[in-house]
């Protein structure tokens, strides 16, 4: 268990996902710990990119000139009744890759693609504003920033290839280095106490559910293994 987290005080924390994929938000939602929406909830982002965006106060985030819109595909979702299961939805989405920061947005744009950019940009503007508010008022609830280290699956790697963008390095070594950098970046922006934790550390607060999130990710990867 994380040395600074106390399961008995869980209502005093504001959990904020910081990558590298949707696993953190899905796990928090299933535990009723996801109270608000934030910028890195449902996209693929390396911790290096997260740090860069925090240091620049989200400069260039979702800028039109940085986005590569790919061909529409069926949307993949977690089964809400089973954290370790996934399903291919009938909904069609347009995967979008940010060339500047290396983020992959697999859920935000419908088959309409670029036509939805104004609505998506407005949504993320609200989430970024909420993120700034959480940093500015840690006395209300202690921010707990949660990240997970997970390699890209074949589907995600293919989106980067199609976009002509170098896939982010999701190796354990890079994650450890960027995790320490993340602490420094956040410390420079917060005056009050905060916690930076891995998903495994947060999961350890709920022993009966330990391992469920990573099992889901293993199944997710297997779905898109190259033939």
Summed up:
This protein is of the alpha/beta class and 227 residues long. The chain has helices at 23-30, 47-55, 117-136, 154-163, 172-187, 199-203, 212-223; strands at 13-17, 67-69, 73-79, 82-93, 96-98, 104-105, 142-147, 195-198.
Written description of the protein model:
The protein has one domain (7-223). With 227 residues, the protein is an alpha/beta fold. Mean pLDDT is 84; it is low at 79-86 and 208-227. The longest helix has 20 residues, at 117-136. The strands form three sheets. Strands 1-7-8 form a three-stranded parallel sheet, with helices on both faces. Strands 2-5-6 form a three-stranded antiparallel sheet, covered by helices on one side. The protein has helices at 23-30, 47-55, 117-136, 154-163, 172-187, 199-203, 212-223, and strands at 13-17, 67-69, 73-79, 82-93, 96-98, 104-105, 142-147, 195-198.
List keywords for this structure.
227 residues; alpha/beta; 35% helix
Fold topology:
Blueprint: E1 13-17, H1 23-30, H2 47-55, E2 67-69, E3 73-79, E4 82-93, E5 96-98, E6 104-105, H3 117-136, E7 142-147, H4 154-163, H5 172-187, E8 195-198, H6 199-203, H7 212-223
Parallel strand pairs: 1-7, 7-8
Antiparallel strand pairs: 2-5, 3-4, 5-6
Helix pairs in contact: 1-7, 2-5
């Amino acid at each position: 268990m994380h040395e600074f987290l106390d399961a008995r005080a869980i209502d005093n924390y504001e959990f904020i996902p910081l990558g590298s994929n949707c696993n953190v938000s899905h796990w928090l939602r299933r535990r009723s710990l996801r109270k608000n929406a934030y910028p890195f909830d449902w996209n693929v982002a390396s911790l290096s990119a997260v740090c860069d965006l925090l240091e620049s106060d989200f400069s260039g985030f979702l800028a039109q000139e940085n986005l590569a819109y790919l061909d529409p595909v069926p949307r993949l979702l977690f089964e809400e009744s089973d954290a370790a299961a996934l399903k291919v939805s009938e909904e069609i989405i347009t995967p979008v890759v940010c060339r500047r920061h290396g983020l992959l947005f697999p859920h935000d744009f419908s088959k309409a693609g670029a036509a939805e950019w104004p609505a998506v940009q407005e949504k993320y503007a609200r989430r970024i504003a909420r993120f700034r508010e959480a940093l500015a008022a840690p006395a209300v609830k202690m921010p707990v920033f949660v990240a997970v280290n997970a390699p890209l699956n074949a589907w995600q790697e293919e989106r980067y290839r199609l976009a002509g963008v170098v896939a982010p390095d999701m190796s354990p070594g890079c994650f450890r280095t960027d995790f320490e950098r993340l602490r420094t970046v956040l410390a420079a922006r917060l005056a009050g106490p905060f916690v930076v934790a891995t998903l495994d550390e947060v999961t350890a607060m709920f022993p009966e559910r330990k391992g469920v999130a990573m099992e889901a990710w293993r199944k997710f990867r297997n779905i898109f293994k190259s033939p």
